[in-house]
Write a structure and sequence with these properties.
Blueprint lengths: L1 H22 L5 H15 L2 H14 L9 H27 L2 H25 L1
């Protein structure tokens, strides 16, 4: 997972955050705040969570657990996490300078990775 975080996620997430900044340039005020927060939440969607769970299963050698049930777990995990994710992504996207967003998101994602791993037990 460290390798995935240092390669795929390290490339993907900052580029997405840059895209959010470009996409929301025409907005201001509350519309800007909600658009940036919403787009960040949309990125960490059930498919992203399912992909993360897939990587956990792959790297732990638990190949038989890779099935469509991961999508159901990811959906419930995403829905249950929306309030926390909204607050964290609001802070990251609207209070942090762009050059610090990846680090802040990485810290939040590391915490959430534990939650995603536990999602299988919870949901």
């Amino acid at each position: 997972m460290v390798f995935i975080g240092a390669t795929l996620y390290a490339f993907e997430i900052p580029n997405y955050f840059n895209w959010i900044v470009k996409k929301t340039k025409p907005y201001s005020g509350i519309k800007l705040t909600l658009a940036k927060t919403g787009l960040a939440i949309a990125y960490f969607n059930p498919l992203w969570i399912a992909r993360h769970l897939l990587f956990i299963k792959l790297f732990s050698g638990n190949f038989e657990a890779i099935n469509s049930h991961l999508l159901e777990i990811a959906l419930w995990s995403f829905l249950a996490n929306i309030p926390i994710s909204f607050l964290a992504n609001y802070s990251i996207q609207n209070k942090m300078p762009l050059n610090w967003r990846f680090l802040a998101s990485a810290i939040f994602s590391a915490i959430m990775a534990i939650y995603y791993a536990l999602s299988e037990t919870i949901f």
